[in-house]
Amino acid sequence: MFDYSLNGVTLHLTFDKRRSDENGRYLLRWCVTHKRERIYFSTGIRLTPEEWVVLDDSRKPFIREHRNSLQRYYDEVIKKHIKELAETDNFTFDALNVRLSRAVIHTVNSAFDAKVKELKEAGHEGNATVYDFIKTAFETYGGKNIAFSAVTPKWLTAYQKEMEKKSISYATMGMRFRTLRAIFNDAIRKGQIKTNAYPFGKGKFEIPTGSGREMALSIDDIQKIAAYDCLTDTLAMCRDLWLFSFYCNGANFGDMCRFKYDNVEQGEIYFYRKKTFNKTKDKKEIIAPILSPMQAIIDRWGNPNTGKDVFIFPFCNGCTSEEQMRHEIHNIIRLTNKQIKIVSKALELPDISTYNARHSYATILAKKRVPESYIAEQLGHANRTVTQSYFDSYTKEERITYNSLLLLN
Q1: Which of 195, 219, 170 is nearest to 406 (CA)?
Q2: Are 270 and 286 in contact, with CB atoms under 8 Å apart?
Q3: How would DSSP label each residue in 109-127?
Q4: CA 182, CA 187: separation in Å to the nearest integer?
Q5: How far apart are alpha carbons 356 and 65 in whole angstroms?
Q6: Strands, sheet with 268-271, edge to edge from the N-terminal-most edge strand
Q7: Cβ–Cβ contacts within 10 Å for residue 97, how many?
């Protein structure tokens, strides 16, 4: 099924019996031979000996998917390049390696890899982690060599049904499919695939939507968290940082840890969301009044205000590169998520994380009938409706009035 030979170059699929994984499956590899030299290329696919025997004709869905994936890679990539090199008598393993490295973008998997690398180089570690996680989810279903041409509306519908069987939420499905859609959009924009390969949209595959779980706490819950008697300084610090995020317009920890006293002017913190700063031409500055609980937290855990260039919080002190800062921020987020769960469990509240602070900020103000345009502005949302665009920016007095509602029962 996967055998090819031309001008002394041979290609076939092999079943590598040297080492199995914990499930008794062995790796399938492409074997290329030329002038008594032999090189192997991994397919990323593993099968048991029994599955390998029936690879050519099994009707089992996962074996059929592997077979189809292998067939596409065989036809569209490896055989194609071997044929082009061999028929002109220019075949070398170096030339084949160069061609395959260029052809790697033929797969959805490698497009994900390229996106993860791009995001990491741009300093967007969080988004890179999300893309990497979602890539793994698609590989669990479609294998290690998912051709763009294989991802059709029918394929996507089948994957959705598979997730439904596993009781995966529609919110999670939507996130996975939107991320895959972004990969397709990138590939089309870069000329790597044609527009007719696009499987999303009306009349094709429409991404499911889901509201997800309620992530917001009530103002009573917030007050319980603030009043909780922490038994250790670490627990108290993490609880306070969570509260600071809540009071500070739901600022994420990446922004909070980068705050400097230079960001403070007349009792307010001015900052841009790092997450979205490079995604829009309209750079929207966020302004958060420093409410009394926020100042108390700064006094308790912050650096002394000895200069404009000093971080408000000490977690990035001494960092000399963005990579070091991301590492320290990741550590404090992980610690806070662990500690805040201790508080929520003791108070018999829902299991929460740093994300809930932002969601709670917006939801509580919305329930207090604060104008939607104000909440959108304070959250730093770049995409605002036409109606919202008619609202002028809010004054300092209005910001203090509205944010102070977080202090009232």
Answers
A1: 219
A2: yes
A3: HHHHHHHHHHHHHTT-HHH
A4: 9
A5: 39
A6: 264-265, 268-271, 286-289
A7: 13
Given a contact cutoff of 8 angstroms between Cβ atoms, the answer to whether 290 and 264 are in contact is yes
- The C-alpha angle with vertex 243 and arms to 238 and 248, in degrees rounded to 5, equals 125
**Tokens, residue 168:** 């995966």
Structure tokens at 96: 């084949």
Half-sphere exposure for 131 (CA within 13 Å, toward CB): 22
**Gyration radius from the chain CA atoms:** 27
**CA gap 164, 173 in Å, rounded:** 9
Residues 173-222 have pLDDT tens digits of 999 999 999 999 988 887 677 788 899 998 899 998 765 455 778 899 99
pLDDT tens digits along 278-319 = 555 566 788 999 999 999 999 999 999 999 999 999 999 999
Q: Which two structure tokens, joined as six digits, stand for 349?
A: 């509240």
Amino acid present at 329: I
Q: What is the residue whose two structure tokens read 């160069």?
A: 98
Tokens, residue 243:
């509260």
Please give the Cα distance from 287 to 380 (Å, whole number): 9
